[in-house]
Amino acid sequence: MSVVPVIVLVGPMGVGKSTVGGLLAERLGVVYRDTDEDIVAGEGRTIAEIFVDEGEAAFRAMEKRAVRTALAGYEGVLALGGGAVLDADTRALLSGHRVVYLSMDVEEAVRRTGLNVARPLLAVNPRRQWRELMEARRHLYEEVAVAVVATDGRTPEEVTQAVLDALEL
Q1: 101 and 166 in contact (C-beta within 8 Å)?
Q2: Residues 10, 144 contacting (CB under 8 angstroms)
Q3: CA distance 6 to 139
Q4: Does residue 120 have a pLDDT over 60?
Q5: Which of 36, 96, 135, 151 is most buried when burial is the number of CB atoms within 10 A of its CB?
Q6: What's the whole-model pTM score?
């Protein structure tokens, strides 16, 4: 029998994948893993530094490899970076997995992150950029997900329970 993640979380930056992923792992008695953290550890530099030094295309190639590796041999809760779903091969790899899309609207994004943190894709006019990113990505998140859980106005614990309920775990 192959080893696969128990749950894969996708969604925009700042939606709470790391926080909810950690809580889910704790509740399910498994380990939590984040492919962005895998990339940072492997490269020895931040994602923002990778974007500046090598550009988005180089980062996306690293991200694709990190996701492929994690999906192939990991059995905990896995969170993917916000843009991982942009790659068609990655979306295909997610088929058959318990993928949950954690969603939020722009007002929630502003409340959570202030849209002023060091996010390479939100450097100029972050509110507009966030909306544009979501317009480009929302359908991709929905395409790979077996469940969508709105995070707006919910605590991490409430979102965690909603994910477990949606997956009937």
Answers
A1: no
A2: yes
A3: 23
A4: no
A5: 151
A6: 0.89
Per-residue CA distances from 24 to 59, 74, 158 (Å): 27, 15, 11
Tokens of 133: 């990113």
Distances (CA, A) of 46 to 25, 53, 59, 75, 118: 24, 10, 11, 26, 10
pLDDT bin (cut points 50, 70, 90) of residue 32 is very high
Task: For residue 6, give Cα distances in angstroms to 70, 97, 124, 127.
Answer: 12, 8, 37, 33
Q: CB within 8 A of 58, min separation 6: which ones?
A: 50
Residue range 80-95, pLDDT digits in tens: 999 999 999 999 999 9
What are the chain's domains? 7-166 (3.40.50.300)
> Residue range 40-66: average pLDDT?
94
Residue with tokens 């949606």: 166
CB 168 within 8 A of CB 122: no
Count CA atoms closer than 13 A to 119's CA, side-chain side.
21
